[in-house]
């Protein structure tokens, strides 16, 4: 390991593993460093991995008896919530039953460890089976720089040298700042706290509760009362025999309103709809971590410099524009593109910005940056008070009226809607919201 590597990948999460898989399959000599005991051991996030990139990395992954994923998503639900009620937009289709699936639910400790095993298989099949490594339980203290170019990494008293470094360290971005790609801490305005409980049920009970068939699964996002007046939203994902239930909460808003993530999660769980869902379940895991809000102002000033590329959460690649929470798919695609850029750099024998700037180009041409750039207005709109509080209250108010049957004359639906609008907002405010939503989505 004293010899120079083509690339050192820092971080054994989705971005780092996707990069490592791509490097291995292109016969690159690399070192992947993970600070946990195994890939995934320190990753507490999880949810839905969207898209088909997993099938590119692990063809026919769905055929494995014990793959790293939990369930495929064929049922989507968006729920508006007030204190007593929920009103949901619900879509389920057998169209989503055919692999490669459009989304699979994952628990990161299991998924990342499984994917790490697939990377090792790719290493074993490469020309550098004895020279490429996955090294765990190692913390990278510093990216070694010479003339403002990355030449390796330092860990404790040891140094490892390479022509290039892919930083996939996650949202903590200590190394991103050390190498000068980010000037300071990301402002709390652009960051969220994700908090989650894993709740276990008998698998048959869980499948009956959510009307699941085989390995089908559901994802459910919540807007409104769930967050107790704090900017953010809720989520629920079905795993094999557990559910992931949690919230993402604006750090700045939570601090200003002097509320804690744990208290808000307990508040969420007292709602009648949620209380019914989690009844008789056993909490087996509790976790929290920081995530980006999807505001591109949180992104580093650049994704590359001499010898360095950023991938995944180290570049704050995440977005929630109301349709889905996307982050793992962005991490996977960026890891693949970063590794492909390094492969081309080796072919040219040039690991400077002159070659690595191609990464920025392919990222900008990818769905990742096109979506982040194209839906910024939707991200901002989702976090407004109108969308967070007024719309959910209005929708639930209308729903109560519409579905209540009394032994008296029933008002027309348009009159019910007018009354709900008057109690919670105004025609003018909703017209402005509709215009902005139509433009941003």
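Sequence proposed for the structure above (441 residues):
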């Amino acid at each position: 390991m004293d010899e120079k590597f083509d690339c050192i990948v820092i971080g054994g999460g989705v971005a780092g593993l996707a990069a490592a898989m791509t490097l291995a399959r292109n016969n690159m000599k690399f070192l992947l460093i993970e600070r946990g005991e195994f890939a995934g051991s320190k990753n507490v996030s999880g949810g839905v991995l969207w898209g088909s990139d997993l099938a590119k990395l692990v063809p026919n992954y769905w055929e494995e008896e014990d793959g790293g994923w939990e369930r495929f998503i064929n049922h989507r639900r968006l729920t508006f919530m007030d204190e007593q009620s929920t009103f949901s937009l619900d879509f389920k289709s057998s169209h989503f039953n055919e692999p490669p699936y459009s989304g699979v639910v994952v628990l990161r400790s299991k998924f990342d460890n499984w994917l790490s095993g697939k990377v090792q298989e790719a290493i074993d099949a490469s020309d550098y089976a004895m020279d490429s490594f996955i090294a765990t339980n190692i913390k990278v203290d510093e990216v070694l720089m010479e003339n403002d170019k990355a030449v390796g990494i330092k860990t404790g008293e040891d140094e490892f040298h390479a022509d290039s470094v892919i930083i996939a360290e996650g949202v903590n971005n200590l190394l991103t700042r050390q190498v000068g790609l980010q000037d300071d801490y990301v402002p709390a305005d652009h960051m969220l706290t994700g908090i989650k409980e894993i709740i276990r049920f008998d698998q048959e009970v869980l499948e009956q509760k959510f009307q699941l068939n085989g390995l089908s699964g559901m994802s459910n996002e919540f807007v409104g009362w769930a967050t107790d007046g704090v900017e953010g939203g809720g989520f629920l994902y079905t795993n094999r025999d557990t559910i992931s239930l949690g919230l993402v909460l604006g750090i700045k808003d939570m601090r200003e309103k002097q509320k804690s993530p744990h208290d808000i999660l307990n508040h969420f769980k007292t709602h009648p709809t949620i209380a019914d869902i989690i009844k008789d379940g056993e909490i087996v895991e509790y976790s929290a971590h920081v995530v980006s809000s999807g505001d591109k102002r949180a992104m580093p000033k650049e994704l590359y410099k001499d010898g360095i590329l950023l991938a995944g959460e180290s570049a704050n690649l995440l977005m929630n524009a109301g349709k889905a929470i996307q982050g793992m798919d962005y991490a996977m695609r960026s890891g693949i593109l970063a590794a492909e850029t390094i492969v081309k750099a080796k072919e040219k024998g040039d690991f400077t910005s002159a070659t690595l700037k191609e990464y920025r180009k392919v990222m900008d041409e990818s769905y990742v940056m096109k979506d982040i750039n194209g839906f910024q207005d939707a991200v901002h709109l989702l976090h407004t008070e109108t969308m967070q509080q007024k719309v959910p209250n209005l929708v639930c108010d209308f729903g109560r009226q519409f579905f209540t049957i009394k032994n008296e004359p029933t008002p027309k639906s348009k009159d019910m809607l007018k009354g709900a609008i008057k109690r919670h907002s105004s025609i003018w405010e909703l017209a402005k919201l509709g215009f902005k939503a139509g433009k941003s989505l």
